[in-house]
Design goal:
Elements: H1 3-33, H2 37-61, H3 67-93, H4 97-127, H5 131-153, H6 162-180, H7 188-212, H8 214-223, H9 225-228, H10 232-235
Amino acid sequence: MSVSTTAKGSFGAGLLLGVIGALAAGAHGAWRSELPFYPSWLALSASTALLTAPAGALLRASRPWPDWFRNLVLALMIAVGPWTILGRLLKAGTHHRPLGAVTFSVLAVVIGVVLVVLVSRLASWSAQRGARMFSGTILFLGLLGVTCVLVVTLPLASTSTLPSVLDATLMVGVFLAAAALPFHKGWLRVARFAGPSLWAFILLVGGIVLVSGPNLAVQLSTRAPVLTWTGDLLRY
């Protein structure tokens, strides 16, 4: 399989994974909106997939990414959890704010460096034990990083903003799924055509739903604004 064919297959796989993720995100948004489920699901799925799926697919097609970049991103995502705990401990135990800020900065850098080293060593160790072990390790580290970010951000959201925070997290999840989820190389030829076809199909159906139901589009924009902001492009 040539390099160009592999890149096209990777792009198709990214679109395919992105659309599947968008369908899941759209189902959650449609269920929460309390509007007719199937039209809402198709509209929200199309709106979510419009930009996030191809953006993630483009990033996927540019792989392999530099090891240092991948390890740095994973380490920083995981570091959000320890940094938050450290900040809360220093805030509760330090009354001298400048001293607390300096202490936090030094310890945060140390934590970040340690995590970068640990992630790099773990990635290198898993790569030596085969592609499946490596993919599973990277997927685990990515899920751990997303969990750390969610644990920090969700408590900061009020009752009124929590749905938007969840929707934004879902959109980021669709992007990451399209960009990074493992995909069997044997299916790249299928994904090369199936990914763009499914993406175009969901955009067509979702666009028809949005154009034919302007009231639904307005209602969705008030109940799931994060998932629907790209959907406005399908209406014009």
